[in-house]
Amino acid sequence: xxxxxKNLYLPGPGPAVLLxxxxxxxxxxxxxxxxxxxxxxxxxxAPNYAGHGESPERLFATTIEDVWQSAQAGLSFLHNKGHExxxxxxxxxxxxxxxxxxxxxxxxxLVLLSTPVLERTIAGLEHRxxxxxxxxxxxxxxxxxxxxxxxxxxxxxxxKDLRALQQFILDAGIxxxxxxxPVALFLGALDDTVYHASLERIEKTxxxxxxxxxxxxNSKHLLTLDRxxxxxxxxxxxxxxxxxxxxxxxxxxxx
Length: 255
Hints:
Layout: E1 8-10, E2 16-20, H1 31-39, E3 43-46, H2 56-60, H3 64-80, E4 86-91, H4 93-101, E5 107-113, H5 122-139, H6 144-154, H7 159-170, H8 172-175, E6 183-188, H9 193-205, E7 211-216, H10 229-241
Parallel strand pairs: 2-3, 2-4, 4-5, 5-6, 6-7
Antiparallel strand pairs: 1-3
Helix pairs in contact: 3-4, 5-6
């Protein structure tokens, strides 16, 4: 799921959906959902962020600003294809970026999967990068000794980079009071407590009068890959169908 990933673009006759993956993930984690929605007629685009789905060295060299620009470019890509109103689906960090993109014109509705808006520990964020590194080289058939040596030479990561990521997540809280679009919130019942607390914060802070919350009983964090994924896909499709873009007013301008 983390290597040799390409941007996934599935043009269809219906409205557009931008699918944003998690931190250290790739477009591959959104592939099943994108194909499901495409089969229902939607145009789907799941881009890889800068440095993601590539070597750890490329990931190390990527800032959170680079990642954010990738998400913005994804929305612009669909606008340039003629889709004025776009549904945003984001998983984990992708959900944070979907919240930020919702401030831009052309957002038809939000689907947030396991989205954090509260503080993650620096140690926890570094663990994600380290795990990505180990798995990447395992898939690359490197020996355990080679991997251990690489990790010893490149970890711990610079704290300033991890703090910038942490602050980017926390700043999503500033956006919450501005979200008025329809929102669907999904969370795995077995996920860490910070995500349960984040969902509660999102639910209470957003002024959107059209909110849907679904707790998936058999899932942990990456909902699109977990045991309840088929229910998740079906619930998302129902949400999109009950919030059609033709009911929206034209945007003053699409950036």
